[in-house]
Amino acid sequence: MARQGGVVSLLLVVLLLGACLPAPAAAGVLLSTLPKALAVTASSKPGQVLHSGVDKLTVTWSLNTTEPAGAGADAAYKKVQVKLCYAPVSQKDRGWRKSNDDLSKDKACQFKVTEQAYAAGPRGSFEYTVARDIPTASYYVRAYALDASGTKVAYGQTGPAAAFDVAGITGIHASIKVAAGVFSAFSVAALAFFFVIENRKKNK
């Protein structure tokens, strides 16, 4: 009987602890459930190469009134968040870049271009200098509309068909390449010199 009482007590403790623990986090917003209520364009041309830290990209957005959630639906939009997203060709065999319908798990849109207040009516725009840490890959642009709580409630994108390329900074500058070439040449010359000296010693 004492053993049964101990088991019951243990079960009660486990149940009480379970009740005190926070509920598991809800799944993230699904992209497939969001209205495509923003019309997004970028100044880049498909296939154009932009260089990190040098070239600029102008992104524009406006309300897409042809969508069911268009005209008048932007009353709840408080901010616009614009991101660069890896195009499908740059996601292949790279799990750390994969897109996911659950936006809390999405890894395709990692780089923020801007986040600013949403202005109803006229279109918004932003001139973006490609950040120096953007890696070499193909990208497209996506914009999210956020409500007062910061939740994504609508989106728009240029789409993979309008993808452009970014040439990232490798970190190897021309001066380093020249120095490496000089040292390589010096090493070859030194080896040849010592080879000649050794041969002379053997001949003597």
TrEMBL record:
GO biological process, any: nitrate assimilation
Molecular function as annotated in GO: nitrate transmembrane transporter activity
Transmembrane regions: 178-197
Pfam family, one: NAR2
Keywords: Cell membrane, Membrane, Nitrate assimilation, Signal, Transmembrane, Transmembrane helix
Signal peptide: 1-27
Cellular component per GO, a single term: plasma membrane
Residue stretches in coiled coil: none
Domain of life: Eukaryota
Assigned protein family: Belongs to the NAR2 family.
Purpose: Involved in nitrate transport.
Annotated protein name in UniProt: High-affinity nitrate transporter
Organism: Panicum miliaceum (Proso millet)
Lineage: Eukaryota, Viridiplantae, Streptophyta, Embryophyta, Tracheophyta
